[in-house]
Write a structure and sequence with these properties.
The chain is an alpha/beta fold. The chain is 33% helix and 23% strand. The protein is globular.
């Protein structure tokens, strides 16, 4: 076999991360389309439709499906007889490929990696370093599996060391409701069982890189214990009724992947990692003949949805918004927003509440305004803003009380549910919380007609922007009376589906 050229390896990594930023795997598209056809919950069906429409738009526009373009995770399997023509080590080459991908001028991807994680948390600027895992096997050639994992799903990872007789299914069913909608379901669950704690988590992560094939497994029947668990967990997790975006519905997972490994006799380590509706992964092999080539899906692979997002939605003029109007909104109601929004994430909120605590004036007037939790991708060409989907709402929970109490803010827009602290603040001040669909960032960006920085420009994507939007689709997640769709929706749909019988062992 010819030697693998350094440039071919680097460019293959770069091309792969660019490719998965705007092309969903075909198996995922088909599984989402099946979920859409099967779904009976109107709110969940609407969310799935937006994800599918966004997916096709991203493929056509070569722009990210989600504004969180992820942490770069790479599994490299190297044949021990492989020869290289390279000056750099494999880890250096991976990071150079990631750097090229995330700083590509035609499709820049958001850099989310911070250095000194318990200190300054300074952004690396190019999304490096990647998280890389190596394996060395007999033979020649290099196989690479990689993924871009968003923070919303990664932050919902779970781990436990169970006793040997404890039930993995029961543990997983106890964990999934605690994930809420922050991981942007429907997606996949990766489960790792056995080995040591770090091995269980690594297996859970690698399991997510396999294709969606649960229906094929059901058709042929399980052969191994891991396959039996996949089918059982798929049915029982979906019976929880969490649904798309945590709104309640039939489809919470599209597949469940299980890998296992021998472990110590006294324990059973179990790792769980979810994969969101912005599923992004691919694999390739290099044999010295050149860089990897990736075949785009055909546009026919996406369903042609005739969905009218305005049907049944209330139109809202943000320029005339008052507390009296927001008090009429009801949890679960769909809105189309037009007018000006303010944005803010963690860093901007911290500065705002620090100013409030010191009794100093704020740089922006929040009276009768809504704030959108977003950190968009950089704009290119004629874009007003890059993909601009919502970030996790509950991270801003600790800021919500002073913002509602002292600024005239009416409410927030983000991803999924608020936590207890945020709900308490909303109920005390009759505030509202709206959600945009996580995993539909390019679709949301098309509703933004203008954008300008109005405060904290030094924070980059975390600066406060004023966005002018037209018909931006959102759903009322918490109304002014304190009713929360992320509580009532899953509860209603779990009741509809029926109680889950937890199996027992002899």
């Amino acid at each position: 076999m010819p030697p693998i050229q350094q440039e071919h390896f680097i460019q293959s990594i770069a091309d792969a991360f660019q490719f998965i930023s705007y092309y969903h795997p075909v198996d995922f598209i088909r599984a989402m389309a099946e979920a859409y056809d099967h779904e009976q919950s109107p709110a969940a069906r609407d969310a799935i439709a937006q994800i599918l429409i966004n997916s096709r738009m991203s493929a056509e526009g070569h722009r990210p499906v989600c504004q969180d373009t992820g942490i770069a995770v790479v599994f490299v399997r190297v044949g021990m007889d492989t020869r290289w023509e390279a000056r750099m080590g494999v880890l250096e080459m991976v990071n150079e490929g990631v750097r090229r991908a995330y700083t590509d001028a035609e499709n820049p991807l958001r850099a989310s990696i911070v250095l000194d994680p318990d200190g300054t948390r300074r952004n690396s600027g190019d999304n490096t370093p990647a998280v890389v895992h190596f394996d060395f096997v007999p033979g020649e050639g290099v196989e690479v599996k990689l993924a871009a994992k968003g923070g919303g799903s990664e932050s919902k990872a779970r781990f436990a060391v169970l006793n040997p007789r404890e039930d993995v299914v029961e543990w997983v069913l106890g964990q999934v409701p605690t994930l809420g909608g922050d991981w942007c379901p429907p997606g996949m669950l990766g489960i790792g069982i056995g080995g040591t704690p770090e091995k269980a988590m690594l297996m859970a992560k690698e399991a997510l890189l396999a294709p969606v094939d649960i229906q094929a497994l059901r058709a042929r029947g399980p052969v191994t214990r891991a396959e039996e668990l996949r089918l059982e967990l798929y049915d029982k997790v979906n019976a929880l009724g969490v649904g798309a975006q945590g709104l309640g519905g039939l489809s919470t997972v599209l597949d469940v992947k299980v890998l296992d490994y021998p472990t110590h006799a006294v324990m059973k380590p179990v790792g769980l990692i979810p994969n969101c509706a912005a599923t992004r992964h691919i694999e390739f092999r290099l044999d010295g003949s050149g860089p990897a080539r990736f075949e785009p899906p055909a546009l026919e692979d996406w369903p042609r949805l005739t969905v009218d997002l305005a049907a049944g939605a209330r139109r809202v003029d943000l320029e005339r918004l008052t507390g009296a109007e927001t008090a009429t909104w009801r949890a679960g109601e769909r809105l189309l927003l037009s007018g000006r929004l303010l944005t803010g994430r963690d860093a901007a909120h911290q500065r705002l509440v620090d100013l409030l605590a010191r009794g100093e004036a704020l740089p922006v007037d929040f009276t009768n305004r809504l704030i959108y939790y977003v950190g968009p991708v950089a704009a290119v060409r004629d874009e007003v803003v890059g993909p601009a989907g919502p970030t996790t709402s509950r991270r801003m929970d600790r800021f919500l009380e002073p913002m509602l109490a002292q600024t005239g803010l009416l409410g927030s827009i983000g991803k999924s549910e608020r936590g207890p602290e945020g709900l308490d603040a909303l109920r005390r001040h009759r505030g509202v919380h709206l959600i945009a669909v996580g995993g539909a960032a390019y679709l949301v960006a098309k509703a933004i007609r203008a954008s300008r920085v109005v405060a904290f420009a030094d924070l980059g994507m975390e600066a406060i922007h004023e966005l002018e939007v037209r018909d931006m689709p959102v759903t009322v997640a918490v109304d002014a009376a304190g009713n929360a769709i992320h509580d009532s929706g899953p509860r209603e749909w779990r009741t509809r589906i029926g109680k889950i019988p937890i199996r027992t062992r002899a």
